[in-house]
Amino acid sequence: MSDAAVKPRDATATANSTKAALYLRVSTGRQAESDLSIPDQRRQIIAYCEAKGWDVAGEYVEPGNTATDDRRPAFQSMIDAALVKPPTFTMIVVHSFSRFFRDQFQFEFYVRKLAKNGVRLISITQDLGDDPMSVMMRKIMTLFDEYQSKENAKHTLRAMKENARQGFWNGALPPIGYRIVASEQRGAKVKKKLEIDPVHAETVRLIYKLALVGDGKSSPMGVKSIATWLNAHNIRTRDGGRWGLAAVHLVLTRETYIGRHHFNTRDHKTREAKPESEHAIMDVPPIVTETEFKMVRENLKARSPQWMAPRAVGGPTLLTGICFCAACGGAMTLGTGKGGRYRYYTCSTKRRMGETGCRGLTVPMDKLDKAVADHLEGRLLDPQRMARMLSDLLDRREDWVERRYGHVTELRQRAAEAEAKLKRLYEAIENGVVDMADSSLRERVAELTGIRDQAIADAERATAAIERLGPAVTSNSLRTFVLGARRKLRNEDGTYRRDHLRALAQRVEVVDRSEIRIMGSKTELLRTLVAAASVDSAPFGVPSFVPKWRTGQDSNPRPPDS
For the domain 178-303, what is the CATH code? Predict the structure, then answer.
């Protein structure tokens, strides 16, 4: 039976006979599947109608739908039939008023709407008339039904939140990259958990890789570029569809992928977000590391127009868009004096609001530019310092390679298992054990073929990703990178190259006249370093902002004369 079933009945009713419509409903899909309640409701209501001498004009069956709102297909079909002129039937018979509605206001709204067209609502277990006392009793009953429904929902939600905290899945489709597996038996219930789906988990890792380092031919990608890249390379969603911006953004921002799945995040009726204090955190196997997740989040924040305006990327000023006041966090913007003869970086908050907004500084542009560039040349671009700074990142890179090879092995094993199952099916068909004409068999063959092909493709893609990491970083390649970076940091006339400087530093904070802070991304340094190890020169790109290699505690003293 479909979700909303309307079943007309052959009635041998006379023109003057009373016609009734039967409305049958259960609240949950589980009740509908096990057929616990609807047959019993039908039996009792038909017996009641026969005793009254009423003819049954039709049945409206609603399996697995709540009665707290009117978004029920069979219910709406019944209301439409009741409101035609003349109505198809003169009464609607239910087992109890709670089957019709569990919202007191909506209940009365529809009862009055039906009454205007000459249709009555009858409950076989709550037989009431139309006198004022009966109307008052009906309102009390429906009000109690509404209260009971809300209490049940509250207790059910509390149980589901506790179930999630214990690490069990409450139902619904899991996030891409995971699959549902049976975990343990508790009485008649089978508790389920999420495990990593090796096929689609590789797609999730690929999305994070594209966001962090690109595809080997480009710099880190944004959400739109990732969606375009996935669709261009025929990498589909779990359902075989094309990737959209919302789906990619959800993968990149969902904490599930670092092992923390949030349950009860939205109101199921209004879809409004709930405060984090009401969430239940469910532990799941992580697909990406927490470091990768945080770096992607910072990349997304850096790409947001609210964080850095597009003009900051192409403006002529060296530090525009990456220079900030340490006191208030506002941007340091360009200011001029003496008809443009003097140029300054000045706190935008102070400039807009005066010292009541911020006591920030105004710094000569040439001196701040020189202080930042000199520090990058003199301290950052030193082979020994850079080796110490990147040592932990290089270690994690090796761990990443080892884990990826493990995923490749798992994917190839899954492809082999699917291939073995296909061979057994083909042998059974050849031997006449099973009939290929069976539709379920054809669906199984298509499913196994899809699993095998997807696993092979993902294994090849994961292997290619490992190969694209490039050669190992040696002391010679590190020295080559440093020399190339120093050479490319300045133009022939001694001026600074803006895009190359930003490949090394993505945020500059002015603390006071003797202190500035420079922050950048270790990952971006490693990416350009690996690229330099595979060619004669050290290429540069303009990376996204991820302040990592300089912290607030490691400040850079400015020259006394600045």
Answer: 3.90.1750.20
